[in-house]
Design goal:
Protein name: 3-oxoacyl-[acyl-carrier protein] reductase
Order of helices and strands: EHEHEHEHEHHEHHHE
Number of strands: 7
Largest sheet: 7 strands, parallel
CATH topology: Rossmann fold
CATH superfamily: NAD(P)-binding Rossmann-like Domain
GO biological process, one term: fatty acid elongation
Keywords: Oxidoreductase
Strand content: 15-25%
EC number: 1.1.1.100
CATH architecture: 3-Layer(aba) Sandwich
GO molecular function: 3-oxoacyl-[acyl-carrier-protein] reductase (NADPH) activity
Distance between the termini: 35 Å
Shape: globular
Number of helices: 9
């Protein structure tokens, strides 16, 4: 039997990158997915690539809005009959040194990553607690562990997701809801491949495994955390970094 047979997952930021790779893996493991993203056209195109409306559903959702996240999680119940897995993945970057970063750039990143994750966690947990079970996966970053230059906003948000995950996990563990986090490192994507070669080489040199990860490698860890294989794990943070910053 597939790991996630018959389960329904909501994935924010699911139209591309890590979110899309997680959706792909979840469907391969028997799940149905609801993708939430700001760009509805891109999200509908992602649904088509994933196999259509029998296995996936697209919703436009701004994760900074509690009302829109509530509509997103309810759509999973309305479309597929339940909510078993929530992946809080949506994110943006607004990199700049502290001297140059604007207050707006700081607030935008905190709102999308940290408030968005809080919205997704609490609203999904409200549904899961009634069902007496569920798995929530929050996507942090190695930047939240070590702090990276030019990312005081991003590092703060991603570190905050770790604290949020641990605190929330304690609140709902007795209700059968598990909450864990993943901290990816250098992941091969359109965004990272647009880096100047000098920066890419510098980051690569920090990785003992001497390569970047594919999004599918993060998706595999998400599938593990979503499945019964991790049934006694909650409040955990799993690094997917190839050994970087250990």
């Amino acid at each position: 039997m597939a790991l996630l047979d018959g389960r329904t997952a909501v994935i924010t930021g699911g139209a591309q990158g890590i979110g899309y790779a997680i959706a792909e893996r979840f469907i391969a493991e028997g799940a149905r997915v609801v993708l939430g993203d700001l760009d509805l056209e891109a999200t509908e195109a992602a649904v088509a690539r994933l196999g259509g409306t029998a296995v996936a559903h697209a919703v436009r959702a701004d994760v900074t809005s509690a009302a829109e996240v509530q509509a997103l999680v309810v759509s999973a119940v309305d479309t597929f009959g339940g909510l078993d897995i929530m992946v809080n993945n949506a994110g943006i970057t607004r990199d700049a040194t502290m001297r140059k970063m604007t207050e707006e750039q700081f607030d935008q990143v905190i709102d999308v990553h940290l408030k968005g994750c809080w919205n997704g966690t609490r609203l999904a947990a409200n549904i899961m607690r009634e069902a007496k079970g569920g798995a929530i996966i929050n996507i942090s970053s190695i930047s939240g562990k070590v702090g990276l230059i030019g990312q005081t906003n991003y590092s703060a948000a991603k570190a905050g997701i770790v604290g949020l995950t641990k605190a929330a996990a304690k609140e709902v563990a007795h209700l059968g809801v598990r909450i864990n986090a993943i901290q990816p490192g250098l992941i091969r994507s359109a965004m990272t491949e647009a880096m100047p070669q000098r920066i890419w080489d510098q980051k690569l040199a920090e990785i003992p495994m001497a390569r970047a990860a594919e999004p599918s490698e993060v998706a595999s860890v998400a599938a593990f955390l979503a499945s019964d294989m991790s049934s006694y794990m909650t409040g955990c943070v799993l690094e997917v970094t190839g050994g970087r910053h250990i």
